[in-house]
């Protein structure tokens, strides 16, 4: 056997294969555990349907929120040379490395009944903690940095040359934003949104802490699975597989190509 | 279709980049800016385009003030009517060629026409650059030369009063660049467009420019009609691109220049040379003879010892280039025949003698500190 210069060393394939098996095996484990004859009835039970619907609805809402807030954030982080922005950057991206449970507690102290902002909202008659809104906020809190970081990278790579040329062509800053900056960032935006949606869909810790687990209101699919695991393992496995399927569809249909082309 | 040409007034000091330039461009004139990398050429364009605010400066298009640091005026780039064409065409990849050209169209903004009119708006400008057939294409399906032609059409469609060109042909291969250069010549001369062209290619200068400005370390080293500067450059960079030898020094007495390291050059005076003033001695490589030993029978007035840095073969001639001069200027060059080079058995690192007759050397005054 003659190795070409660009061939990887053979021993590298060992750990790579073990890694792949490590990722795939648990998924196979779920599929093997699922009680296939009763699969449909298990996932179409009222509690499972409610959880799935809530999950998809809240994940979609938090993705929209991530886009609305995250796109401007990413661009400001990528383009602004102000010192304040540079100092804030690590802080803004902190939820990326923060344990979600800690994130949930932090949200509680900000938006909860006695929280920094929450006490004023409470006085105004607005309750956030332990509502569906809290689910969306918890998901947004943990997902936002994913979108911001994906988009910021894309914006940095793209540079601002197109914007400069657009300005010399007479386009005002807002026109440049809608007609040049945003269209050029669409690929980065799609991959960022897919990441954010996937992260929101799987959110558990922050949701449980900040929103609780009330069926139909705050009990998303991951929470439902965790609870069912004790009482009805078959239902938990079926719902887990459902979650895997939903996430896989999102990533494959919307994002695989985009994700592959990041960076 | 065309805009009345306006002249350009530019005074700019950008301390951070060491730029300090004052220049006026007449209406319809094309000013070429030459200079080594980092001389401040692009910075200059950025100041004119309003992408960079100078520490001190005044930029006017005709009587319209675009930047006036004293009065605190800094018109936004989008309101300047200053077009910018870069080496990278930067066509918006999500728009068709026609939509790209219509993007900046003045008419579009004035009457807020709908998108369906992009094609009609773009047509005359695309025709001007001979690219009508490309209207429906996406930018990524264009060759480099086609993309740059479309970029020219797009810049023109915004009807700028001043057009800035930053090495617009640098990224193209020889064939494409000659086509685009011809297009540029047509559009720049036809409408009498006031333009500033940054380039490093003499062909661009010959084809497009009325005047040449050589920028060195942020200052104007020389400026003048293209033919004058290239025939008799006074700056290091001007000499380099014109392919002539340049020795900087101080004018000593009639027909004599003395360098900072004690060499004397004999030559023919320019009228404006005065004793003690900065001056340069200019000679062509073809006028330089090369000897192994100091010649005994004939004696050129200027004879100096040179260490050979490199030999460059150009057809039947060989250019012998000496090591850099003591002040860091490029080494002197001598063009000799291939036969003579073979006979002399030259190799880099060897010491030879360069001889130049006094009547082959021209002494010219320079501004202090520019050469």
Rounded to the nearest angstrom, the distance between the terminal CA atoms of chain B is 43 Å
Mean pLDDT of chain B: 86
Calculate Rg of chain B over CA atoms.
Answer: 24 Å
Count of individual helical segments of chain A:
12
Helix content of chain A: over 70%
Please report the two chains with the greatest interface, counting residues with C-beta closer than 8 angstroms to the partner's C-beta.
A-B, 18 and 26 residues
Helix content of chain B: 10-25%
Structural class of chain A: mainly alpha
Description:
The complex is a heterodimer of chains A (263) and B (371). Chain A has helices at residues 13-33, 39-43, 46-79, 83-92, 100-111, 118-123, 132-158, 161-168, 173-201, 205-211, 221-231, 233-260. With 263 residues, chain A is an all-alpha fold. The radius of gyration of chain A is 22 Å and the shape is globular. By secondary structure, chain B is an alpha+beta fold. Chain B contains 10 helices and 22 strands. Chain B has helices at residues 41-49, 97-103, 106-111, 118-128, 144-157, 174-190, 202-208, 226-231, 236-242, 338-344, and strands at 8-14, 19-25, 30-34, 56-61, 64-68, 73-74, 82-85, 162-166, 194-198, 211-216, 219-225, 245-253, 256-258, 264-266, 268-269, 278-283, 288-291, 302-314, 317-322, 333-337, 351-356, 362-365. In chain B, the strands form 4 sheets. In chain B, strands 7-8-9-3-10-11 form a 6-stranded mixed beta sheet, sandwiched between helices. In chain B, helix 2 (97-103) crosses helix 4 (118-128). Chain B is globular. The interface between A and B is medium-sized, with 18 and 26 residues.
């Amino acid at each position: 056997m003659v190795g070409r210069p660009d061939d990887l060393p053979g021993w590298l394939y060992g750990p790579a294969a073990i890694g792949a098996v490590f990722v795939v095996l648990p998924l196979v484990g779920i599929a093997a555990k699922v009680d296939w004859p009763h699969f449909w009835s298990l996932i179409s039970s009222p509690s499972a349907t409610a959880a799935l619907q809530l999950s998809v609805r809240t994940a979609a809402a938090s993705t929209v929120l991530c886009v609305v807030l995250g796109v401007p954030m990413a661009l400001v982080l990528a383009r602004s040379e102000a010192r304040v922005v540079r100092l804030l950057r690590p802080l803004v991206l902190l939820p990326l490395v923060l344990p979600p449970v800690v994130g949930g507690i932090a949200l509680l102290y900000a938006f909860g009944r006695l929280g920094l902002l929450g006490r004023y909202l409470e006085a105004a008659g607005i309750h956030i903690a332990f509502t569906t809104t809290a689910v969306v906020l918890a998901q947004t809190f943990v997902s936002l940095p994913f979108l911001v970081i994906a988009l910021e990278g894309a914006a940095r790579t793209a540079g601002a040359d197109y914007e400069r040329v657009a300005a010399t062509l007479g386009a005002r800053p807002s026109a440049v934003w809608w007609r040049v900056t945003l269209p050029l960032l669409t690929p980065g935006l799609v991959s960022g949104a897919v990441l954010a949606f996937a992260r929101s869909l799987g959110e558990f810790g922050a949701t449980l802490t900040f929103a609780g687990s009330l069926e139909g209101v705050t009990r998303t699919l991951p929470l439902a699975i965790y609870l069912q695991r004790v009482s009805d393992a078959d239902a938990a496995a079926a719902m887990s597989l459902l979650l895997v399927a939903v996430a896989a569809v999102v990533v494959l249909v919307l994002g695989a190509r985009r994700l592959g082309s990041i960076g | 279709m065309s805009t009345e040409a306006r002249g350009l007034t530019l005074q700019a000091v950008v301390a951070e980049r060491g730029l300090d330039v004052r220049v006026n461009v007449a209406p319809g004139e094309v000013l070429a800016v030459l200079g080594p990398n980092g001389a401040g050429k692009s910075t200059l364009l950025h100041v004119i385009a309003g992408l960079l605010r100078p520490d001190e400066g005044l930029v006017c298009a005709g009587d319209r003030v675009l930047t006036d640091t004293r009065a605190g005026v800094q018109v936004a780039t989008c309101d300047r009517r200053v077009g910018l064409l870069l080496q990278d065409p930067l066509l918006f990849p999500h728009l068709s060629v026609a939509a790209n050209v219509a993007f900046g169209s003045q008419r579009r903004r004035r009457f807020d026409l709908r998108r369906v009119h992009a094609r009609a708006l773009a047509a005359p400008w695309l025709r001007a650059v001979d690219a009508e057939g490309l209207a429906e294409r996406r930018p990524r399906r264009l060759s480099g030369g086609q993309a740059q032609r479309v970029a020219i059409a797009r810049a023109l469609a915004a009807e700028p009063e001043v057009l800035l060109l930053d090495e617009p042909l640098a990224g193209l291969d020889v064939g494409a660049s000659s086509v685009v250069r011809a297009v540029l010549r047509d559009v720049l001369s036809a409408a009498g467009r006031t333009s500033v062209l940054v380039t490093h290619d003499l062909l661009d200068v010959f084809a497009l420019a009325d005047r040449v400005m050589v920028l060195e370390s942020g200052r104007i080293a020389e400026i003048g009609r293209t033919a004058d500067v290239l025939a008799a450059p006074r700056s290091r960079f001007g000499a380099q691109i014109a392919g002539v030898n340049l020795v900087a020094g101080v004018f000593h007495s009639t027909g004599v220049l003395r360098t900072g390291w004690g060499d004397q050059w004999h030559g023919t005076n320019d009228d404006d040379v005065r004793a003690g003033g900065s001056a340069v001695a200019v000679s062509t490589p073809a006028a330089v003879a090369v000897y192994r030993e100091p010649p005994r029978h004939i004696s050129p007035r200027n004879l100096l010892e040179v260490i050979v840095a490199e030999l460059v073969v150009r057809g039947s001639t060989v250019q012998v280039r000496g090591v850099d001069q003591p002040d860091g200027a490029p080494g002197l060059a001598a063009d000799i025949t291939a036969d003579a080079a073979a006979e002399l058995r030259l190799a880099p690192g060897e010491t030879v003698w360069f001889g130049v007759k006094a009547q082959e050397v021209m002494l010219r005054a320079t501004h202090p500190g520019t050469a």
